[in-house]
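Supplementary material to the annual report.
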Amino acid sequence: MKSPTKPQKQTQKLVKHKITGDNLFKIFATIIAASALIILIITGYTLLKGSIPAIQNFGLNFFFGQQWNPVEGREIYGILPYILGTLVTSGIALLIGVPLSLGIAIFLVEMAPRSLRVPVSYIVELLAAVPSVIYGLWGIFVLRGWMVTYVETPLSKYLGWIPIFSGTPQGLDIFAAGVILAIMIIPTIASLSKEVLTAVPNSIREGAYSIGATKWEVIKRWVLSYGKSGIFAAVILGLGRAVGETMAVTMLIGNATGPSAMPHSLFQSGQTMASLIANGFMEATTGSLKLSTYLGVGLTLLIMSLIINVGAHLIMTRVFKVKGGAIE
Amino acid sequence: MMNSYGFRKLKNNLFFTLCAICVIIAIIPLASILFEVTIRGAPQLSLTFLTGTSANGGIGPAIQGTIILVCLTSAIGIPIGILSGIYLSEFGNNKYAQNLRAINNIITQFPSIIIGITIYGIIVLTLSSYSAIAGAIALSFILIPIVTRTTEESLKLVPNTLREASLALGVHNWRTTLNIVLPTAKNGLLTGTLLAVARIAGETAPLIMTILGNRYFFQGLNQPIAALPLEIYKNALQPYPEIQAQGWGAALILILIVLIVNITVRIATRSK
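Predicted assembly:
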């Protein structure tokens, strides 16, 4: 300590940068706000680390194989049937759910009298509030009967010669899982599409009416085409929900494993990645290849969900930026 | 002929009827679920059913377990979620916050079963036991992003003039946030948080591999615990009608909790 002023200066500096309530609060909030990032990293890391043994052991066959043999010493696991099962059930859900959701959104924005708007959109929101496991319970004891009697039996009787309608209808199958998923994604797609349609400027509608278009023509040619990228994003978010939905699907899909789970017909039992985990995860013992396989399935599902949701997010931010600019 | 006004009008009406039918089709499942759950669940309700263990045909442990899990999850998830939301809304004008916002939106959409096996990997394997705390952490991983988002949205609705007025009086930034902005956004915060909690109360998939289920009442945070959604799942898959009926009873309780929260919140916010 050569000069007595130096430490004094340092204290002054410290006082200037002293930790005030403001700084402390901001730092604290900054750290806590990283929780989303931390959740993402923990999830990715745990699944990646856990699935390495299975992926190393089976190589590409892990993703493209169909075998499922848990006999110790001769274990072989391929997850292709479950990837396809996920895609097929989600595809059915979109085929049924998207037209219904768009119909609901158009009804709410363009047609419904004011007195109906609030209750109907509230009912659609309630559909989203019902827990997935209750959909499953209802699916097993109610929807299954309806499906067999009114949908699957007639389809298999008259169209049974088409491969996708072959097999005996029994209600615990890929089709039933797709239908319950369609019901579950309606609130997601309908409420987002409703917002997109509401954001379409009225001047567009008025311009179209002024050249003599009917309401349906206005919606078809102008409103839907103006909102199409937003609606596309809504559909993708619905797909994201369908891909990851677990309980209702697990209870209705019939839970096949191995090559028999490859989706050939709508009326056969299948398996999605999520339902595979929900069903079999508890049978896997610690450190086993089977556990690693389940974590690998989880990783694949995570990657699929990431791609879908990042895609939807990118479209959404672009849509709303463009729209913001157009409105302002 | 094809373009005559009459034909176009007809197409118009046809299309509107189709849209109305879509709405009716969407209402059918909800109506049927509420109807069946009430019809099949209501006969189950009795004091022993609500408070007894499975030995005397009750779902007491499951109800208790769900209450404990919801409280624990709220205690972990709500403070973290609200603070993250505050950061994104009040200090969120930078690249870091923008990225966090995007990540938050994306993990809100994560399949919940993925959270379940992640928590199995990091907590259940570490403690080498299924436990209530593992379940609560899994559920809070789901709760945090939702609460973050609703907090940010409700804080953004607070007019900036209120913040400026408070700062002009010489109040610190953080006091402004806690004493002016948060109380103003109270209604939105409460609504969003309650709806999020109602949602995690019905979450099942991540519980399968974290809490395992338990036939007895609460035995400690590091022990397996029962929960309503898990009880419904297990009972539904049993071949015995009387056990399936218990599942419907449990479903009635669960759906009552979820609906009461949803409807109360809706009515409370509507009247304002």
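Chain B has a mean pLDDT of 93.
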